[in-house]
Amino acid sequence: MPEPLIVAHQLVKRFGDFTAVDSIDVEVQPGEVFGFLGPNGAGKSSTMRMIACVSPVTSGTLRLFGLDPATRGPEIRGRIGVVPQMDTLDGELSVQENLWLYGRYFDLPRAEAKRRTAELLDFAQLTDRADSVVEHLSGGMKRRLSIARSLINNPQLLLLDEPTTGLDPQARHVLWDRLYRLKQQGVTQVLTTHYMDEAEQLCDRLVVMDQGRIVAEGSPRSLIEQYSTREVLELRFAAGSNEENSLKLGGIGERLELLPDRVLVYAHDGEAALAEAHARGLQPESALVRRASLEDVFLQLTGRSLVD
Amino acid sequence: MAQHTATPGALRVTSWHLALYKRMWKMNVLSSLVQPLLYMLGLGVGVGSLVDRNAGSGAVLGTTSYVAFVVPGLLVTTAMSLSAGESMWPVMGALKWHRGYHGIAATPLSARDIVFGHATWIAVRCGIAAGAVATVLTLFEQTRSWGLAPSVVVAMLVGVAFAMPIMALSVGAERDGMFPAIQRFVIIPLFLFGGAFYPISQLPTAVQWIAKVAPLWHGVVVARGFTTGNVDWAGMAGHLGYVTLWIAVGLVLATRRLSGKLYP
Asked: What is the pLDDT of residue B1?
């Protein structure tokens, strides 16, 4: 087995009295796409910032490429690419200026920076917008540019903090496609997200974080198998009657989850569960049988939904 | 890549400033010329004609004409105003609004490179602005002198001496509300009472001390030594040393503060 790219052991980040990251253990292998999944405030971004070597570790150990960020920060930063949660593009400069100037920060020779810029414009499908001023780009284009810029130094590790938050579905799919291509090229990726579908699409392995701790770890499939049934029946009843109706569902499926707007019935056979509910005389306003997702895993683990 | 010599971090940061400047330099050079030349005409010609007619004024000013007295003051105050402006909103913008500093902080560069890059860029900008004014001044016989060239360098130093502590303030500031206050209570008073338009010996002693604490007056004295040809090397070295002290302390403060913001 190759040496892990990232090793974190009992990693802690505190801001004053507040513990943002509470003794987590993580290992990421080369070529892997690894996800931190959790709601806002779970400690994902604080963890990412420590890995990106822009936030000192409070306690515990962290190694990237076997190096300690406390002493080798600039060197490590030279080998990774970072797509921050909020874009740090220069809106007054053009798309290509943003790219090649960033290359200069890594001390790429001018000619090399320009060559990489042309390649990355193509990768990000922004070649025809090369001379556009960045503030005139759409949100999806800015995000693609941020990703392209993070690749200017040919990083061995790419960190993406909520890469698709705020994007429309089409822009998200374009972005996922680009990230998948990078994975095929062997670029190790670590990303945070609070979108289940994103984690399921992209990640080989992930950890679920809640209140600074890791509450589960595994591949998306194995987590679903471990913490949920195969299918989920979603029932919506007339406003205000979810709780009352849920009492009549007792015994159907393996488990019930009462949410403010719907009742979830966890069952291996969703259709059979629905038939049983109808047989008991229940008349939901709508019923949907779907495959279980990471959302259900999170709900099971924490009792709360991910996106509130 | 093996034979590639590393470019100093500060210069890599400066290439970003330069890229931004390329988009607006024409307007910028023009506007940095207009203000000093208006003062030059208004004060130099208007007030100057009164001053020069007053019998004892030549002895107090130590120059042949009022215009000749004002010239170095214009060069150095131009640098002061410019560097103050460049070290307030743009610094806050790069930290809080477009977050460009955070982008740089994610690369091998550090807070120190950003601060030294800013200092380098301020020196260049002040050189361009003061150089443009000096070039125009060579067109007139009354203001033409070889001393204009070293005075531009003095203006660059004074610019950096103001830029660094103001950058440190801007990095720590929560909102941009304090910036107009810095302009009104620091920059404009120094402009008026800092020895640019009359010798500070004309001021009450207490006010003289305020002028002497800030780097502006020291720079003006040195530049005036050059433009009038009254070169007192020892005295000028002392004044320049004091200006350099401001730069050094400012660099340390700005780097420390920025480092705390970028790498929390």
From this structure: 44
Look at B106 and A52 and tell me if their CB atoms are within 8 Å: yes
pLDDT greater than 70 at residue A137:
yes
**Which pTM does this prediction carry?**
0.91
pLDDT in tens, A31-76: 999 999 988 889 999 999 999 999 999 999 999 999 999 999 999 9
Q: Tell me the CB-side half-sphere exposure of residue B96, using CA atoms within 13 A.
A: 12
Residues of chain B with Cβ-Cβ distance to A90 below 8 Å are 16, 20, 98, 100, 103
pLDDT band at A260 (very low <50, low <70, confident <90, very high): confident
Instruction: Give the tens place of pLDDT for each residue, A68-91.
Output: 999 999 999 999 999 998 899 999
Q: What are the φ and ψ backbone dihedral angles of A92, each rounded to 5 degrees?
A: -85, -15
How far out from the chain centre does Cα A132 lie?
Answer: 29
Q: Name residues of chain B where pLDDT drops below 50.
A: 1-2
Residues from B contacting A (CB-CB < 8 Å) are 1, 4, 6-7, 12-13, 15-16, 19-20, 23, 98-100, 102-110, 262-264
Query: Beta strand pairing status for A255-258 and A205-210?
Result: unpaired
With an 8 Å Cβ cutoff, are B106 and A88 in contact?
A: yes
Q: How many angstroms away from the CA of B80 is the closest CA of chain A? A: 25
Q: Is A110 on the interface with B (CB under 8 A)?
A: no
Reported residue count of chain A is 308
In angstroms, rounded to a whole number, what is the distance separating the alpha carbons of residues A275 and A282?
A: 10
